[in-house]
Amino acid sequence: MSALPSYAELFSLSGKNVVVTGAASGIGKATAWLLADAGARVVIADNQIEAATAVAGEIGRGAYALAFDLRDDASIAALFEQTSRNSGSVDVLINNAGIYPRYAFDELTEQAWQEMQRINTWGCFVAMREAARWMRQRGQGGRVINLSSIGALRTAVNDQLAYNASKAALDSMTLSAAQELAPYNILVNSICPGAVRPLDPKPRPAHHAPPTGPLLAEGRMLLGRPAMPAEIAGPILMLASAAGGYITGQTIAIDGGFSLS
Asked: What pLDDT, in 10s, does the model give residues 44-70?
């Protein structure tokens, strides 16, 4: 028998309990589907509990929904406590939930700045902290995959100064957390998507101007198109599985070549 693992063994999440935040739509939903296909029992965590419950019902295979709010530390802690109580462990956190409003440079207020950092930076840190607490307690390691943005690495879309700052902070926290949690075999990495095609397209509200900026300029996406949500979920599966078992402290851009253009 070969000592090399099979494809199925490398990418299997059988027996793993995975929390995907912001999983009621978009990248989170696509990721929840893929990780469930790989054998994981997935928690669909979202502040839109009705939509989250619907996604869990569509997925089946032991998936279930839990409500939580990144604005509320107690709500975040309760998410991981309930997951551990229901499932016996927290093995993987996909730290995907966040907000991404755009503010013109001269219109960015302290209140808007603080809300962005409270949710995208502090809230995501609390999720990492609480997930890691349960992972350390169980003593069998774990994975944390933070969903950042290409805007943390390159100026990509106009009017996103506060958002980009929040995601750059998340990338920095990824590095620090990877170093501090490595002794517990908890691997921490960050994914930075560029443009992504909506999973559930919705009409743009009349008062929302279309985004502009380098990412949308002709020729800047070298592959000529936005990513499909599954093309973001695929690398997440790799990092969550045995295939990513020697990767930690990395920030991975998935931007169709935008960074090179």
From this structure: 999 999 999 999 999 999 999 999 999
